[in-house]
Specification:
heterodimer, A: alpha/beta, Glutathione S-transferase Yfyf (Class Pi), Chain A, domain 2, Rossmann fold, 4-stranded parallel beta sheet, B: Fumarate Reductase Iron-sulfur Protein, Chain B, domain 2, 11 helices, globular
């Protein structure tokens, strides 16, 4: 049993409820004790830092101070929301880097009888804890229902692998950790090229066209790779792609129905936990239909090797030709262009 | 033909704006290290919608073009994806500089589109009051104020989220709200002094 301090963040019992529910079940199964820090407050998301510097960092540091007080034996503080994780990690790093910021934040915390010494709490993200502390071998050993037949596009979003203040990620733009984890669950993992591209964040609220365009890019690409669903680690990414897909379809005249779920939900399914307890059914773009594919043979090989091209005339110089067998992806693209 | 020349600002003003931006940025901004390579703009998913690419904006900051820089929509279009930050060969804290510029534009009231600063201020107001964010209150107020035409589409979505237990009608509150208020007002006081 390993003990961790846990910072849920506001969305865990709101829009990201499926994440909260599934991670509780999965952590219990993995033997990770998550003890929630008492009376934590919002991390300020990406809004507070854009208003006023010292209050924004004092707001984050209150959580760090509470965590430092709750710490018994060097337990790390774990967040599962990417924005919360980044804010906590950034506050710790910047308080170390800028003594003036550290001083101001601590004077402010003093007004509430709190103090935080930067560096005294280790801040980590749940995915990284599962990869490094639990390990893929143990995850594999616990799989009772392999996700074979389910084609998933791993989507990390931005704020987990970047800017990475604590240097935990080997690759900031194409990290492989989530791919490996989903493979360990037995899923058919798409090599998703946009895995760390932006979902638009708060753009759906302040400049909808910009946000919806970014969402469209992601969903188009996942669809193009034949994914049954996208899998994410971030509640912001989840709600943007899940809830705004309707508005995106209306704006761009598309008909996408791409479900997006949290990685812990799929871990739960693979560990044999109940579908409903893992928060399935809370998503607006239904993912349960795709779940039925588990254990079935995939209908078509989506990324089939290109057909061998024959030269039309053996005497002629080799010329580029279209493959003999019709390529469904190419046809779909062509018909989209014609429309 | 006489070409009207833009007068460069006084030297003192030039450095003052750069220093002001750096001082208000979390971490060390490293703005003065920018080599104008343009990697930031080339990595940016929303560069198309920006008045100036980040590279241009940094040149403007160093040239002391305060008014122009604070009127630019660039910081407001930044999605905080940190692509530019990990790619910048000089390690400039680009995203954090964007946050700084937003704050400065809010103080100077120099933004042209009110939507983003309104959203931020409602969010911040709720966090200050409750200690937690309140998605329903935030979005309802924001959509009524700025996106009334999106409401017909948003209402079924909100109902869908509500039916699936993903929207709380009432805000969650922390217990130690007084302590939080004391911390935040002290911090605001310190911020104003500088």
């Amino acid at each position: 049993m390993s003990r961790y301090l846990y910072y849920p963040g506001c969305s865990m019992d709101g829009s990201g409820r499926a994440y909260g529910e599934s991670l509780n079940g999965v952590c219990e199964k993995l033997g990770l004790t998550m003890s929630e820090i008492d009376d934590w407050n919002c991390c300020g998301a990406t809004e507070y830092v854009g208003v006023s510097l010292s209050p924004a960092y004092a707001l984050i540091a209150r959580n760090l101070a509470l965590a430092a007080n709750a710490k018994k034996d060097g337990e790390p503080l774990v967040a599962a929301c990417s924005a919360c994780y980044l804010n906590l990690a950034k506050a710790d790093a910047y308080m170390k880097e800028r003594p003036l910021l550290n001083e101001r934040v601590n004077v402010a915390l003093g007004a509430g009888d709190l103090h935080y010494e930067p560096g005294s709490v280790e801040i980590r993200h749940l995915l990284e804890v599962i990869m490094n502390d639990v390990g893929l071998d143990q995850v594999k050993s616990m799989v009772v229902k392999p996700l074979a037949g389910l084609r998933v596009a791993p989507y990390l979003g931005c704020m987990l692998p970047r800017p990475d203040p604590d240097h935990r990620w080997k690759n900031h733009e194409r990290p492989e950790e989530l791919d490996r984890l989903l493979e360990a669950l037995g899923a058919d993992v798409v090599d998703f090229p946009l895995k760390t591209e932006c979902c638009g964040g708060h753009m759906t609220q302040i400049a909808p066209k910009v946000g919806l365009e970014l969402i469209k890019r992601l969903v188009d690409e996942a669809e193009h790779h034949g994914a049954d669903m996208m899998v994410t680690v971030c509640p912001m990414c989840q709600i943007n792609i899940d809830a705004y897909q309707g508005e995106m379809n209306a704006l761009f005249h598309t008909k996408h129905k791409m479900p997006i779920v949290f990685f812990t939900q799929l871990m739960g399914i693979a560990f044999g936990l109940d579908e409903k307890k893992m928060g399935f059914g809370r998503e607006l773009t239904d993912a349960r239909k795709a779940l039925r594919k588990i254990g079935q043979q995939p209908e078509v090989a989506v990324e089939a090797a290109p057909a061998h091209r024959q030269r039309p005339d053996k005497r002629a110089l080799p010329m580029p030709t279209m493959p003999k067998d019709a390529d469904p992806v190419r046809e779909a693209l062509a018909s989209e262009v014609n429309q | 033909m006489v070409v009207a020349q833009v007068q460069p600002p006084e030297m003192a003003d030039t450095t003052r704006f750069l220093e002001e931006v750096s001082a208000r940025t979390a971490g060390v901004s490293r703005l003065e290290m920018c080599i104008q390579c343009g990697t930031c703009g080339g990595s940016c998913p929303s560069a198309d919608d920006m008045d100036h690419t980040p590279r241009m904006l940094f040149a403007m900051i160093r040239a002391g073009m305060k008014d122009e820089a604070l009127r630019s929509n660039t910081p407001w279009m930044c999605v905080s994806c940190y692509h530019c930050v990990v790619r910048c060969p000089q390690g400039v804290h680009i995203a954090d500089v964007m946050y700084t510029l937003k704050g400065m534009a809010e103080d100077a009231k120099s933004y042209r589109d009110k939507t983003p600063p309104h959203f931020a201020s409602v969010f911040v107001g709720q966090v200050e009051t409750f200690g937690r964010s309140w998605e329903l209150g935030l979005t309802a107020r924001h959509y009524l104020r700025h996106f009334i035409l999106r409401l017909p589409r948003m209402t079924p979505m909100a109902i869908g989220l509500f039916m699936r237990g993903r929207i709380g009608i009432m805000p969650n509150r922390i217990h130690q709200r007084k302590q939080l208020h004391a911390i935040l007002s002290k911090a605001e006081e310190l911020e104003k002094v500088s």
